[in-house]
Amino acid sequence: MSYQVLSRKWRPRKFEDVIGQEHITTSLMNALKRGRTGHAYLFTGTRGVGKTSVARIFAKSIRCENLGDDGQACEACASCENFADTQSLDVIEIDGASNNSVDNIRELINNVQFLPSTGKYRVYIIDEVHMLSSSAFNALLKTLEEPPEHVIFIFATTEPEKILDTVLSRCQRFDFRSPSLEKLNALIEMIAEKEGITFENKNIVEKISFFGNGSVRDSLSILDQLLTFSENNNIDENTLFLGLGLAKQTSLYELAEHILSGDVRSMSEVYRGLQTENVSSEKIYHGLIDTFYELINSLMGGKTAYTASLDSYGPQELMWIYETLSKDLEWASKTYDLGKTLEIILQKICVRREELGQKVQKKKD
Ligand SMILES: [Zn+2]
Q: What are the residue ranges of CATH 3.40.50.300 in the chain?
C-alpha cells in the first residue's frame, strides 16, 4: 500500500476522536440524541482545526439508521457502510473555492429537490463557503429560506466575516478553537506511539506543535516532513533542525553569548555560518528572539539550557535587547537585503553599550 500522510490516516472518524472541540461535538451529539438537527450549520475556525472532519462525522450520524444513545453513528448500518466508501450519493461535498459560480450552485439546488437514495437525509457539505460569488450566495439563500425536509447544509469557512448576514442568520453557528499546545502534544505522542515513531526528547514534540501553529493538520504535516529526514523513525534534534531549516539551539546560545559580550566579529561568524547551513536569516533571527525570551525568563526562575554566565547583565538590558530585536524586524523586512540588514541589527545590538553611553554623554553636554 502506498504511504498515506499522517493527517489523512489519523483523521478523526468519531466525535470522541476530535481534539479540542468538545464544546462543539457535545452540542452536536445532544442535538442528534434529541432528534433536533437544524437545516443549516456554519462551522468557522482557522485551517486544519477539524471543521471538515466534524462535518463528515456529523453527516454520518445524521444519516445513521441505528444511531446510538450517545449520538454516535453505529458504523454498521447501510448508510454508515455507504459512507465509508469514498463518496456517498447522499453526502455531497463541494469545495466552495473551485465551485463558486452561480451555475455550480444552481446545479446543486436543482438536485436538492430529489429525495436521498437511502435514508432520510441528504447532507451537503460546502467547504470554504466564503469563496462563493455573491450571485451564488443569493441563489443558495432561496433554498436556505425554505429548505426541503430531507436536506441539511453544513458550511465550513475560515472567514465568516465574508458571509452575508442573511445567510448567517439562517445557520446554527459553531466556532472552532485552536486546540491547546498540551492537547496537540498529547495527540502527536499518541500517534507517534502507534506509528512506532520515537523522539529524542519531549522538546521535539513541543517544537512540532509550536510550528504547527495550533493546526492539527499542519502539525502532522511537519511530523511527516521530519520522518523523511529521519533514520529508523527516530526524530532527534538534528532531524528537527534539518527538517524545519532551523538554527540549532546551541548555535543560538552561541550567538546570544557573543551579542551579550559585544563580540561583533564572532557574532557575525556564527550568523554567516548558519546561513551557509541553509538556515534562513529570518529563522536565525526568530530563534534568537525566542532565545532572549528564554534568557529573560530564566532570570525569574524559568528553565534554560544556556550555560554561560548572565551575571553581568540585568533584566533591563536583556529586555532592551528583546525589544530592539522585535521592533527592528518590522523595518528590516522592508529593506533591500533582509539577511544583511538583520546582521547589521545584531551588530548594532553588540555595540549597544557604547551607543547608549554616547547618548547619555551627549545629553549631559
Ligand atoms: Zn449507522
A: 6-175
Kind of pairing between the strands at 91-95 and 198-199: unpaired
Q: Is the dihedral of CA 323, 222, 178, 162 positive or negative?
A: positive
Q: How far is the CA of 62 from the centre of ligand 1 (A)?
A: 9
Is 6-175 assigned to CATH 3.30.70.20?
Answer: no
Residue 75 CA, ligand 1 centroid: distance in Å: 5
Report the separation in Å between the CA atom of 83 and the middle of ligand 1, taken as the mean of its atom positions: 9
Comparing CA positions, the residue from 266, 265, 246, 245 lying closest to residue 254 is 266
pLDDT of residue 331: 92
Least confident of 161-175, 222-236, 349-363: 349-363
Distance, CA 41 to ligand 1 centroid (Å)?
Answer: 21
- d(CA 121, ligand 1 centre) in Å: 13
Model confidence over 269-306: pLDDT tens digits? 999 999 998 899 999 999 999 999 999 999 988 889 89
C-alpha 69 – ligand 1 centre gap (Å): 12
Which one-letter DSSP state was computed for residue 231?
B
How would residue 364 be classed by pLDDT, with cut points 50, 70 and 90?
Answer: very low
Ligand 1 centroid vs 64 CA: distance in angstroms?
Answer: 4
Interval between CA 150 and ligand 1 midpoint (Å): 17
- Indicate where the chain has its CATH 1.10.8.60 domain(s): 181-244
Give burial (CB, 10 Å; 0-12/13-18/19+) of 67.
buried
CA of 74 to the centre of ligand 1 (A): 4
Global pTM value: 0.79
Task: Label residue 104 by pLDDT band (50, 70, 90).
Answer: confident
Decide yes or no: CATH 1.10.8.60 for domain 181-244.
yes
Q: 249-364: what CATH class?
A: mainly alpha
- List Cβ neighbours of 278 (8 Å cut-off, separation of 6 or more): 245
The pLDDT-based confidence of 359 (bands split at 50, 70, 90) is: low
